[in-house]
Amino acid sequence: MKYGARNQLTGKITGIKKGDVMCQVTLNIDAPAIMNSVMTMESLNDLAIKEGDSVKIVAKAVNVLLVKE
Amino acid sequence: MKYGARNQLTGKITGIKKGDVMCQVTLNIDAPAIMNSVMTMESLNDLAIKEGDSVKIVAKAVNVLLVKE
Amino acid sequence: MKYGARNQLTGKITGIKKGDVMCQVTLNIDAPAIMNSVMTMESLNDLAIKEGDSVKIVAKAVNVLLVKE
Amino acid sequence: MKYGARNQLTGKITGIKKGDVMCQVTLNIDAPAIMNSVMTMESLNDLAIKEGDSVKIVAKAVNVLLVKE
Amino acid sequence: MKYGARNQLTGKITGIKKGDVMCQVTLNIDAPAIMNSVMTMESLNDLAIKEGDSVKIVAKAVNVLLVKE
Amino acid sequence: MKYGARNQLTGKITGIKKGDVMCQVTLNIDAPAIMNSVMTMESLNDLAIKEGDSVKIVAKAVNVLLVKE
Q1: In terms of DSSP H, where are the helices of chain C?
Q2: Quick check: pTM over 0.95?
Q3: pLDDT in tens, F5-24
Q4: Which of C3, C38, C69 comes nearest E65 by C-beta?
Q5: In chain A, what residues touch F5 (CB-CB under 8 Å)?
Q6: B9 vs E56: CA distance, rounded Å
Q7: Which of B39, C11, F9, F50 could form a disulfide with D4 if both were Cys (CB 3.0 to 4.6 A apart)?
């Protein structure tokens, strides 16, 4: 099983909040992980980041896909 | 500084691959973290997941935003 | 009318599930269609796919836009 | 293998266009398929769509994930 | 022509940067506009925002669709 | 504070609609703004747009992030 996405972590579900149409699933990530972000070169230049810098990684929950293997 | 997104991690940049218009930034996440996924109730029922289950968390790198605070 | 998106299909609505803020619309696609996915070169190499291969195409419903022409 | 996403089709790869950081994969969908869109109730009311209506389905290729099972 | 999306602005193109696979289009928005954001109730509570507050609105360019009517 | 995203506007909140899991925040954008869209070169060629053209800019509210600085 291979996914065409750079961010693939494993998590344990700690909570499920059910609504009428949508729901929200909360997970714990225990182990160290590698993540990736793709942006425009212009955004990279504005950020002025380089190897070794610490940054905040933000992702909306609607763009996170869960897969049960 | 508060973000209207459920997924907020901190990472250290380990690599930057530059292209003509787009670039890809790779990061290491060291500490344990909490993540969230929002999906339809139908998807939740199909997944048949519950608290305690381990699942794969997949997110495309284009939907990951970096912020330099 | 031209859209700056690679995936443009036509579907017939078969169901609408209404919630408080969000709703879900289900559609049938009858005819053959062409779809496209954009990913990083790294993801392509990991997938190790080539012309002729069959793959699963996954898209979250929140990222699907309906237009009434 | 279960995915927390409403849109799951199967396609055959017909072309791969490689760039420096990103690439584009083109696929053929042969069989009839079911798709879903999630939107706000306000958008639904503006669209004024109902069961049986034909609509255009638009999705950007960056939000389409390929999985090789 | 009606779109199932809450954010619909009109802009004039001021620049196009072409790459091998992807490109970036820059636009000017002149007139006042209304925008919308959908998030989880948890994010709303964390943000602690209310009517009248000024906030930053951030959207990645990959999730912005251009339509030529 | 720097964001790795091309679209950064400032808005004043005019309404909040709360649901069970999700909510919708409406904002007014007063000042002129610059926006950006990233798409495939194929989409650009299909659109056949050039500098000076007026186009519609469409973005789903789920992909709009609010930040309270």
Answers
A1: 41-47
A2: yes
A3: 999 999 999 999 999 999 99
A4: C3
A5: 39, 43
A6: 20
A7: B39
